[in-house]
Amino acid sequence: MSSDTLVQAPAAPSMRQSLVIVGGGPRATGLIERIAANAPELYAGSGLDIHLVDPHPPGAGRIWRAAQSPLLWMNSHAEDVTMFTDETVRMDGPVRPGPTLHEWAGVDGRLFADRQLQGGYLRWVHERAVAALPDEIRVHHHPRRALRVSGPREGRQQVWLEGRPRPLLADLVVLALGHLDAELDDQQRELAAYADEHGLVHLPPDFTADSDLSALRPGEPVLVRGFGLAFVDLMVLLTEGRGGRYDGDTYLPSGQEPVLYVGSRRGVPYHSKIGYDWTGERPPLPRFLGLAEIDELLARSDGFDFRRDVWPLVEKELGFAHYHRLFTAHPERTAMAWADFEEKYAAVSGTVEREALVSSAVPDPGDRLDLATLDRPLDGVRYASHEEFQDGLRRYVEDDLSRGHDASHSPDLAVFLGLLSVYGQLVRLGDIGSWWHGFFSYLASGPPGPRLRQLLALSRAGVVRFVGADMAVAAEDGVFRASSPTVPGFSVEARALVEARLPEPTLRRALDPLLRELHAEGAGETADGLLRVDRADGRVLDRAGRPHPRRFALGPHTDARTPGAFTRPRTGGPAFRQNDATARAALVFLRDLGADAVG
């Protein structure tokens, strides 16, 4: 679409208000859906124009756009993806149910859909949300980039767009920017400069579908730092994307593949998605980390420390979910009645006491929850040779796949539900550092099982080679060189290095000019560089902690970031809760503003 367009156009009343949403992806769609749901109760203005500003089509946005490889999948089953609220979402607005991805598409619920199909679902949800708006509310799409927002705190805002001489006037502005590009940090700049000087290839953190991979030449070694979902995309595009194919568990190369030497801090891939359904009683969550505990943390006059004050509650909550499932679904593997264990588990206060209780009640160490080992499985592990490590890590991945598809290990699925519950609570604390988000993604947001089977096939074919934990990269002797303490004495050199991860969403390094302007003007930021927002409704805070009356922000660039703009059904959906709170605050502000104007 080459010009600004009107999506919905009923008759125009005389005095119309304006809401500008910067970003047109699923977060913006979720906000529009909540505006439609809450408007009958809260808005009776003379008319409202919603302006969506995004160079990509509304609904799918950049990440889920149609113009990307059909080889790229979602990392969730189709039945576990919804854009619609249900009664588990704690919000003041009405529930407006709708179909999951698999119900909408008519596909197997256990399918890992490709991103193009998900993009179609998101476009449909966007059109449905727009159609549900009252007649006096119009939606316009401006396929441009927003450059900056200006205007007084108490007056109309001006949103300046690329290639448009006059700004959009806005009574309110919502930033729903999604994942953003960032300038290189100091280390990345040094590596990029070294690559330029020595004729090497350095691909910095990026959304993999947007990366130019043409410089990664067939047969040559490529160092890859990062073992999460960005790596999985890279692996797919450089193998099947270059003409290779799978024959069962065997990979048949095309001859166009480079050799990927992959490592990371943990040195292992993210855990496989669980491949069986839940049956029976669910753990009653939250139990040890709920509203009361979060309120207590927020009320502390001296603040709180994540490791000291929050993590012990997280450990206890995840342990409760795990053992509730073990005792209720697999009682033959326990040595105590659940009621007795539950009472004692609630009473213990420290890690040592809890471990002693678990040891007495759960005979098999394999049935006990060990979060430290789950987080860093290669800590202290050493292999005598690079080849021995290849065999060892393949066994690790095979064991992970086997466990993730065996319902006798269903406490793992209970821990997954616990992680979702914990995330929904921790959102209220604001910025708690990046470690928790990485830990959550590693355990709860890993790749589909079939992707890890492909990884095994690629490893056996010699297309993927494992480097190890705490992978270090040095730029020396005209090449990049990687090593890891997992295999002492081993190193590999290459002329190409790929940083397989998304850019960090920080205010100071964001390439997005609008966020940089906000930072320069005094918007509040956390120690990790995230935009500070009011936890109640998403209003942008300044450095003194004052909420801006006319500016809101939602998404991963804020300190109220959530696991995603869509979620698994019936899990409370913290993004849905935030969307509802922001929509209601915006509608009330606009309603009162209109009343003041009439008065």
Automatic annotation (TrEMBL):
<dbReference type="Pfam" id="PF13454">
    <property type="entry name" value="NAD_binding_9"/>
</dbReference>
<feature type="region of interest" description="Disordered">
    <location>
        <begin position="542"/>
        <end position="577"/>
    </location>
</feature>
<dbReference type="InterPro" id="IPR038732">
    <property type="entry name" value="HpyO/CreE_NAD-binding"/>
</dbReference>
<feature type="domain" description="FAD-dependent urate hydroxylase HpyO/Asp monooxygenase CreE-like FAD/NAD(P)-binding">
    <location>
        <begin position="20"/>
        <end position="179"/>
    </location>
</feature>
<protein>
    <submittedName>
        <fullName>FAD/NAD(P)-binding protein</fullName>
    </submittedName>
</protein>
<dbReference type="InterPro" id="IPR052189">
    <property type="entry name" value="L-asp_N-monooxygenase_NS-form"/>
</dbReference>
